[in-house]
Amino acid sequence: MIALVRRSFERVVRPLLAIGLLLSAFQIALIASASSIAADGDVAGLTRLVPGFLHKSLGLALVSFAGMTTIGFFDAVIVMIVVLFAIFLGTEPAADVEAGYVDLILARPLPRHWIVSRSVFLMTASVVALMLAMGLALWLALAWLAPSGAVWPQAGVVITMAAHLMMVSLSFGAAGLAAAAWAKRRGSAGLAVGVAALALYLVDFLATMWQPIAGLARVSPFHYFHGGDILAGTARAGLDFTVLGAITIGAIALAYWRHGRRDL
Known about the structure:
- By secondary structure, the chain is mainly α.
- It has one domain (2-260).
- The chain has helices at residues 2-40, 55-58, 65-68, 76-90, 92-99, 101-106, 113-145, 155-180, 186-207, 227-232, 237-260.
- The longest helix has 39 residues, at 2-40.
- The protein is globular, with a radius of gyration of 20 Å.
């Protein structure tokens, strides 16, 4: 098991570091921008520059320095970067089949489920590492760049956002793991789940503007992570986290079941 994890880690450590540095740099740039706006005393003025339909999703992020500094945890681009990376990690079993490496693994007396367990561990550890990097970059940037007297974001709010971003990413990564249990090519599994993630994000986004599809948004994991609601204190954080956790566990269980019965 350790050998499998080590081999997989060696393959993803460079993209993991690159993404971690990118997200950390974004956090630092975000704090610098928020500090500049706060120094001018017109943070609330940002609401006039943002279309009304975005106010629900951004919420208090537009009206306070503390809110602005948390945008990195629910900005659409950042969220999709972490989600797509989790999908990439989750589809590794399909890459093993495509490259023929799975034959070498199973030629030894190893439990078949180790292939899935390896990917679950690596995917979870990598996403957690990214969340820790973002959190560390946030606090270091605040200590370095925050204006004197500025109110920092509450630690509980930041932890809640990071936990939800982690879990929504793992839910799609687990979906990629389940898809990889059927697929023979990593690209096909990753593309299918990646396109589904983008579609589900758009469904949730459109639901904030068009009430008739508000019910449809409940099928999207993104429906259970709205940063603006967390900032406002109106989010059902416990329930939302539980739903995302159930989706993740269900997809991982499906991957174990299918991989155990797969003809390799």
